[in-house]
Amino acid sequence: MVATVPDTKLDWSSYHNVINGELRATSKTRTAVNPATEEALPPVPVSTEADVDAAVAAARAAFPAWSKTSWDEREALLNKLADRLVANLPEFTDILVRESGKAIATAQIEAMFSHTFLRGLAALRVPEEVVDDAKEGYKVRLRHLPLGVGAGIVPWNWPLLIGLFKIASCVIAGNVIIVKPSPFAPYAVLKVVELARGLFPPGVIQALSGGDDLGPWLTEHPGIDKISFTGSSATGKRVLASCSRTLKRVTLELGGNDAAIVCEDADLAQAIPKVGTLAFLFSGQICMDIKRVYVHEAIYDKFLAGLVEFVKTIKTGDPNDPDTLVGPLQNSMQYEKVKELFAQIEPQGWKTAVGGAPDLKSAHAKGFFMQPTVIDNPPEDSMIVQEEPFGPIVPILKWSSEEDVIARANDSKMGLGASVWSADIARATRMAEQLEAGSVWVNTHFDLSPKVPFGGSKWSGFNRELGVDGIKGWLEPQSLWVATA
Fold first, then answer.
1. Is the dihedral of CA 72, 60, 16, 330 positive or negative?
2. Which residues contact 249 (CB under 8 A, 6 or more apart)?
3. Domain 2-254+460-483, what fold?
């Protein structure tokens, strides 16, 4: 079954797979849930293995011609896609609120970043290099060739932005891509791929929605050359094992347990609201949110008191309210996981500085709402410190020596991000340089740029999204030796 849609304006009442330039329905569908109301959202396709085969065949057919287009041609089309995205920005913002439960102010940031990062990535280039011409009679060039067919597996927390990270990086490098959105938040991704129809040749950008079996069909498919996956470390390990069977290239951007180190000379008037916001943004459900806060003992009490007062001002509730910072958790599965963590507060003897109630069901008839919570100086080996909560709960811990706090911040299987907060930039930079994370910030956290590589170390993944390094992940280096004599 094939449906049609105008080039720049979308029908937001129905959702389809995009295969070979066509909107395709499936015999079976499923619905995601609005996490603020627990109401069913529109049905989306449940792809079959035959749908995967059809998308891969279309991608392989499209790749030879697409790989021969110029960087400038590809950039022009990606910029036109960005124009179409801007023309539908209010609708994308609305669907992000409804499918993810994120506050509308956060959804607006995601929608804005999506088109600006799309343009920024499209402007990047990986030029050919002459790497050796010193030897008489030889010239050696390093070329960068497109890999072929890629698949992007997108998470539920930033579906539009991360989906476009993968689309832009893959396509600007001369590859073709099949995008799989999360079954918890499939809507924005399906619609942005619809926007690409009629703009890119059929088969260049495709989308498949489905259930838990769709991911393995993609990772094990012999016709796919690379997987770019964003999600949990546990799932990332399974993705890597699956891809190894066909020696696919893999980029993994996985979980985090980001530490923020606050020094005794930090500007608390600036640091407290920033740290508080970046700990509870999207209910703590962002891999780059601050998950552990280490505060120097000389200012610990003052920082904690200030953070408690800040948290009390955080508005939790209706994500459509522009004053809301913390909406619901995104899905019932995540809600139950975080409830289990909250349930450990009393048995483990953790001291609650603010919050602590496992949920806000009493205040909301429906929705997966939880109370922003700060845990006061729990033991370093406690679950709340060692594991990523992925919910609105954050521990604050004391430190006294630089050597000790750096060792504690690094004592994690995760290594996505970290930050140091101090008025002494030289000292803060020296400390930051010792932190084991893919991104490290001084007096800020969570900053991103399309020009700057992003990814993790240790169990937070490997290889990079964004920047020239991210583009290179979609290219195969080739050394070309030419005998000139």
1. negative
2. 147, 225, 226, 227, 473
3. Aldehyde Dehydrogenase; Chain A, domain 1 (3.40.605)
Q: Which residues contact 472 (CB under 8 A, 6 or more apart)?
A: 126, 144
Q: Interhelix angle for 71-87 vs 89-100, to 10°?
A: 80
Asked if residue 2 has pLDDT above 50, the reply is no
Give the pLDDT mean for 271-294: 97
Query: What confidence score (pLDDT) does residue 312 get?
Result: 97
Helix (H) or strand (E) holding 12: none
User: Which residues contact residue 309 at a Cβ distance below 8 angstroms, ignoring those fewer than 6 apart?
Assistant: none
Residue 360 pLDDT: 59
Averaged pLDDT for residues 311-338: 95
pLDDT for 137: 86
All structural domains of the chain with their residue ranges = 2-254+460-483, 258-449
Catalytic residues: 253
Alpha carbon distance 406, 432 (integer Å): 9
Q: Which residues, at least 6 apart from 163, have a Cβ–Cβ distance to it below 8 Å?
A: 152, 154, 179, 181, 188, 189, 192
φ/ψ region of 273 (left if φ > 0, alpha if ψ in -120 to 50, else beta) reads: alpha
Among 283, 274, 312, 275, CA closest to 103 = 283
Nearest to 339 by CA among 316, 368, 381, 377: 368
Three-class SS string for 55-103?
HHHHHHHHHHHHHCCCHHHHHHHHHHHHHHHHHCHHHHHHHHHHHHCCC
For strands 373-376 and 393-399, give the pairing. Answer: parallel
Residues 429-468 pLDDT 10s: 999 999 999 999 999 999 999 999 999 999 999 999 999 9
Q: Going by C-beta distance under 8 Å and a sequence separation of 6 or more, which residues neighbour residue 199? A: 7, 77, 80, 81, 84
- pLDDT number for residue 7: 52
CATH number listed for the domain at residues 258-449: 3.40.309.10
Pairing, β 249-253 against β 461-462: antiparallel
Cα(44)–Cα(22) distance, integer angstroms = 15
For residue 358, name the pLDDT band (cuts at 50, 70, 90).
low
149: left (phi over 0), alpha (psi -120 to 50) or beta: beta
- Please tell me the predicted confidence (pLDDT) of residue 359: 60
* pLDDT tens digits, 5-43: 445 789 999 999 999 999 999 999 999 999 999 999 999
**Contact residues for 268 (Cβ-Cβ < 8 A; gap 6+):** 299, 302, 303, 306
